[in-house]
Amino acid sequence: MRTVLVTGGAGYVGSHCCKAFANAGWEVVTLDNLSRGWRDAVRWGPLIECDIRDESRVRDALKVYEPDLVAHFAALAYVGESVADPAKYYANNTAGTLALLEAMRATSCRRLLFSSTCASYGIPRVLPIDETHAQHPINPYGWSKMIIERMLEDYGKAYGMASVALRYFNAAGCDPDGDIGERHEPETHAIPLMIEAARNPSQPFTIFGTDFSTPDGSAIRDYVHVNDLARAHLLAGEMLVARGGTHVFNLGTGVGTSVFELVEAVKRVAGRDPAIRLGPRREGDPPVLVASYTKAERELGWRPQHSHIDFVLETALRWQQSAFRE
Fold this sequence. Notes:
2 domains; alpha/beta; UDP-galactose 4-epimerase, domain 1; Rossmann fold; single chain; seven-stranded parallel beta sheet; 14 strands
């Protein structure tokens, strides 16, 4: 049986990936400091309560479990917070990953799956965005992830570290079985906020900008179901075990949904209108972010299967309506 050590496995995407690996027959070990994850989301193996910056304890965990692969999700991921407090993001995301890599280098583990982001591209110059697009982040969060990608390239050349960086577009939706879902404190993602605005009119959803150069004036984003992301991690992990190397893949659908289109989709799925208010653009928000996933399809055999916007919303709505969420 292969073993994967999942940093940040108590968080949103990380916990869904833990389930995917477990269902595929892997032994799953979660390492999380629980600062933004949830203890009850760790359901597919043991939890090591530890910060990735604690290099000694991470090294000990690697020696005990001898994983074939590390899947690295542990990160702070609020763009606005990164602008207000960049030191926190470079210390946690970038320096934390350096400590993780050094712990791996001190043991026999030489394969890393990295949860990266489309925020490393900044304002797109060409659409859809493929992996050759220049990376010009416009916030410290994006920079913290882009620097890690460069670290992985250098560690591959110098130390033989095999890695895959997976650049997500907009992770969305929840486990269709209802085992786990999306929980953030505070919540900043559009879909759970808009569903809450449909369930609770006293919590309106703010549309930031209606004057973008898009067909309806609102920003367009590429929403990819979290289960599709989890399957991509599984495929990428299997590829790393089989042949190593240093790789980068976009994970998106190639289909954009505007904010106003998302409002209509929530109406359709939830059966009620979300409460809406209009606000100004946020600084640095690109008008459109849509991925090309051609490379992932060609090299991993991956394509989104669960990312139709109605299915994404149905799974998110079921999670928010569950007794657990109430």
